[in-house]
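Supplementary Methods S3. Input chains for the assembly prediction are listed below.
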Amino acid sequence: MKQSLAERAANVLTEIRNKKPLLHHLTNFVVMNDTANLTLHIGGLPVMAHAKEEIEEMTAIASALVLNPGTLSEEWVESMNIAGKKANSLKIPIVLDPVGAGATTYRTKTNLDFLNKLHISVLRGNSGEIGALSGAGGKVRGVESVEGIKHPETVARAMAKAYNTVVVITGKRDIIASANNVYYVDNGHEMMATITGTGCMSTTMVGAFIGVEKDYAFAAAAALATFGLAGEIAAKQAKGPASFKVALLDAVYNMTPAQLKKGAQITQA
Amino acid sequence: MKQSLAERAANVLTEIRNKKPLLHHLTNFVVMNDTANLTLHIGGLPVMAHAKEEIEEMTAIASALVLNPGTLSEEWVESMNIAGKKANSLKIPIVLDPVGAGATTYRTKTNLDFLNKLHISVLRGNSGEIGALSGAGGKVRGVESVEGIKHPETVARAMAKAYNTVVVITGKRDIIASANNVYYVDNGHEMMATITGTGCMSTTMVGAFIGVEKDYAFAAAAALATFGLAGEIAAKQAKGPASFKVALLDAVYNMTPAQLKKGAQITQA
Amino acid sequence: MKQSLAERAANVLTEIRNKKPLLHHLTNFVVMNDTANLTLHIGGLPVMAHAKEEIEEMTAIASALVLNPGTLSEEWVESMNIAGKKANSLKIPIVLDPVGAGATTYRTKTNLDFLNKLHISVLRGNSGEIGALSGAGGKVRGVESVEGIKHPETVARAMAKAYNTVVVITGKRDIIASANNVYYVDNGHEMMATITGTGCMSTTMVGAFIGVEKDYAFAAAAALATFGLAGEIAAKQAKGPASFKVALLDAVYNMTPAQLKKGAQITQA
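Predicted structure tokens for the full assembly:
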């Protein structure tokens, strides 16, 4: 089972390299450079555009839409809604990263609004963020989860069902849940928590994979396995978090389907 | 004397690692990624949030507020004022970085407004910026100090007294002045001037230290000694400014209290 | 001929190091950090400022103005126009990077407006972008050229004449055309396409060179030769795109006039 999931992940990676999915990002100022680079390294094309005058036209040519309201403001939220509606109307998949949901009322409300008004293909957050959005508890301080949810699979599945989406909770073991299906990913390295934006980067990674693979739950699992495996490789060369980040981005670019087939730790519940 | 100041600095670093102060940044677009990473590496938690809808709630949970109007606009200045007032009402310390004060009337005026309307715990700038704000002279070209102040200690102390703050002038020798006290920090390396944002990063570093240590003048001195020492370590491995930046961020993360105790060059006037 | 152009390029580099041109950037959020650093590394001073309250004052002290509407919005476009008019009135050269022109109507229109309303000293884009603006064809997907122009020299020269500017089309072989003159630059490395922002960085590089050299066509050629040569040097040390970027920025900083004189591949048509 495990072997075949890793092999399937490797095939999706090959697809990305062949099709070069265009990822339209409406994302936060902190990680724009890193996520644009990551998109290129995994094999996609990034574009960052948020002006109302062009959003719909840009979304229309995208393979996936990445919504990341990490440095949100009214104007950007409006633009994200326009992009989201356009994506929905054209059946372009959306991945949402609810950065800091739970830390302020505005962040929680904005992300719940997205979930209610748009059809989100994949929601990816940490345990605190998903906890806050689900109402199941969990605590967020700034943008960091400081208290997780007690029964994450149950919460993730219930939420996936309620919003007709795939819910991803990243952590030491990543949980990827649709209404009927749960995957676990055990790749990754603790160094990933020492730099800002690894959450945002994993969301972008999900964007690349759902840009070519319609089984969104599996695509998300494959994305996280790829990114986590790159983290494992990078950790071997790092002298600290900044050299780790350089090695991480290099490892994503250098990742071969064969490497992924060998190293992806994906299991199905 | 010197030994004991270094030891005290090391103890503050230990505090940061234990308490993980949350630093709410309203900062410029150029350095957001670097300062978020630096916050994590020194041991704090970064959050970047500027929307009026959430500012007060975010500031309220912060250990310190970092105001850096390096790419200012009316909207952001308004948000900074809201955050600043909230911080003052809750006695959360504020560090202000008057990026480019002196270069344009707007920058000078905006930063003087902050100093007049808010209680700023630490003001950190280069010699040209502090000169412009104090009226003591000094010249700024873009965001770089091209002409310093003649009697920096005198100016810094007078300004510290006038605004009931701590005034930090960074340079080859850093000067940290409160109304009654002056510290000098002799750590640092000339490579720090070859990358953008070392000023902003040192301000974030001050934010982390005042987030746990209430003697703000000493906290600022300890922050600059830590950052400068990291620069010294990084310079040994750098092949140029970009590899220096990687090594600098790594060195901040890897800095131990023991290393700081041995290497911090803090003296009291 | 070739030798003497390389020597002339080396002399312009020396000028930059001596004069430290101030580059006022109104640029996109994705590359701000990289282009600010690049400006410092080549020998200039960067400043990023976009508030209407200070734009004219900041532009007035600049050696060159860099307009890069890569993450454009109405407000920023307005600011770019104000800065551009001020630069024109003071005969400060402008380099324009029409990021993603052709991808959306808004991007094409905004950049044509700049060309029509302002006097642009150098227009630098990829083949798709210049194709879209010239009406000669070319296709852009997001911000990447996916289909070039058939007769780029002809198009570039015609456009240079029509707008009284220098048109630069970067690619494997860079083309730099004024109404009467065409240069080619054959420096560069394919690794440059693996990271985001090399286009934007080459535009900033052009800004530094036109900041000190009034023969804008030659200045642009010298800028691209310098940047391309840095790419060649960096490629030898890179393990992937992120370590390539570090090495690229280091190589720009470490570039000596002698190295450039030896390695610059500039020819005149």
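Chain C has a mean pLDDT of 96. Chain C has one domain: 2-268.
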